[in-house]
Structures are given as structure tokens and as C-alpha cells.
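Lab meeting, item 3. Inverse folding demo.
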């Protein structure tokens, strides 16, 4: 896959947003930190699809959004976390139904 400026910008924006280092991403993905740095700076013009998939999964973002900028940024897992119901509210809802 060719890494264009838009992909690099989206990748960097998410990394900054999540306050992550190259080393933490490397640890979480098994991809060497130097490779992460080369992707972020544009020094690598190509990226392995599996590595992009691993990075997207680690960052909890939609791979297709990372590549194209289209669709939802968040993965289904992240959406599920955002829609999580607090247990206290859940208990109150159950009590109200009974």
C-alpha cells in the first residue's frame, strides 16, 4: 500500500490524540518502532497491509477510514465502549421495569 500524505496525517492525528509514542505502538503491535516512525514521517512510501491493519487495530480505529478517510473513524469495538451503559443506571432501569 502506498502511504500518501492523507494517510500519514490521519495516522499522526490519532497518535497525537491518544498521546502515544512510537515505542508504545511498537509494543502493542509487534512492529519495530523505527518502522512506525518511518510511517509517521513519510520516510516509508509503502506500508505492508498487515502492519497497517495491526496499527489500526491497536489504535482502535477503522482501517478503511485510516486508508481512505471515508466511513466511521471508530471501530465497532470503540463504538460499543462509547455506548456502554453504566451498571448503576442499568440497575435503576431494571428496578423501574419491575
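The presenter then showed the designed sequence:
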Amino acid at each position: 500500500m502506498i502511504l500518501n500524505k492523507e494517510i500519514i496525517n490521519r495516522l499522526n492525528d490519532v497518535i497525537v490524540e491518544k498521546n502515544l509514542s512510537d515505542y508504545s505502538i511498537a509494543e502493542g503491535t509487534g512492529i519495530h518502532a523505527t518502522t512506525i516512525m518511518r510511517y509517521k514521517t513519510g520516510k516509508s512510501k509503502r506500508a505492508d497491509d498487515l502492519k497497517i491493519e495491526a496499527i489500526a487495530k491497536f489504535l482502535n480505529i477503522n482501517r478503511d477510514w485510516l486508508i481512505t478517510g471515508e466511513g466511521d473513524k471508530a471501530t465497532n469495538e470503540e463504538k460499543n465502549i462509547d455506548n456502554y451503559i453504566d451498571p448503576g443506571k442499568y440497575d435503576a432501569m431494571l428496578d423501574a421495569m419491575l
